[in-house]
Design brief:
27% of the residues lie in helices and 29% in strands. The chain has helices at 27-37, 71-83, 136-149, 188-197, 220-225, 228-237; strands at 20-23, 39-45, 52-57, 60-65, 89-98, 108-116, 132-133, 153-160, 183-185, 201-211, 216-217.
Length: 238
């Protein structure tokens, strides 16, 4: 583990961050979790507005910090958490768009694998295409917890894309939906790759915030404060 902390992006010392961390994209969602779910909370980061907190949940030490949007931002924060602060379990809790008609607004999607159009994996110089997958240890715990809580969920492949707004010329071949992709988001591939490279555990738990099949969308306020099922699910498995 590297010891030159604080890092350029996280203003924390060794020991300030727990071995298990929840990673919402929105830093205000991190604050909401700290305020409403954790006890004995201490803030460890506000650099660049990316709020981070450590506290306890049912007696277990856990941290939560925002990561921003996209693979580059997730790549920076997850890399520093693993290699500088010794974090072992990283759980992204984010929002996603439905890519199958059976995946409804506010449903939970657990990302078993992450396809991507990002160039993030090219840095490793592998002689082929790397398959970004979740930690089975965390995945199995999440499924077990969802069953116990009676939370409806979907498990499968998700898409991590660099493009929120796409040109009309994008993707004229087979669609991701036709390949069975459940939902689309923007950070999971970088998280899964960094965890694999750093020998850590990672999982992506998503709440569906919009659907092209029904044209339903949720507000920014709803995404920040009302998607509590995925928060509880993530906290249960750390």
């Amino acid at each position: 583990m590297k010891t030159n902390v604080p890092t350029p992006h996280i203003n924390a010392q060794i020991g300030d961050i727990a071995e298990s961390i929840l990673l919402p994209g929105d830093p205000l969602r991190a604050k909401y979790i700290a305020d409403n779910f954790l006890e004995n909370v201490k803030q460890f980061n506000k650099t660049r507005g990316m709020l981070g907190f450590t506290g306890t949940y049912k007696g277990k030490e856990v941290s939560v910090m925002g990561t921003g949007m996209g693979c580059p931002s997730m790549g920076i924060y997850s890399y520093e958490l693993i290699h500088f602060y010794g974090v072992k379990n990283l759980i992204r809790i984010g929002t996603a768009g439905a890519m199958q008609p059976e995946v409804k607004l506010r449903d939970i999607v657990i990302g078993m694998g992450s396809c991507t159009d990002s160039n993030y994996m090219h840095q490793y110089g592998l002689p082929g295409n790397y398959s970004c997958i979740a930690s089975y240890k965390l995945l199995s715990k999440a499924v077990h917890s969802a069953k116990e809580k009676g939370i409806p969920y979907h498990v499968g492949n998700i898409l991590c894309t660099d493009l929120f707004y796409k040109a009309n010329t994008y993707n004229k071949g087979v669609t991701w939906s036709e390949m069975g992709i459940l939902a689309c988001e923007m950070e999971s591939a970088a998280l899964y790759a960094n965890a694999a490279y750093g020998k850590a555990n990672a999982l992506c738990i998503l709440t569906i915030s919009d659907s092209g099949f029904t044209d339903e969308v949720t507000t920014a306020q709803e995404r920040e404060t009302s998607f509590t099922k995925m928060m509880e699910l993530a906290l249960d498995i750390v």
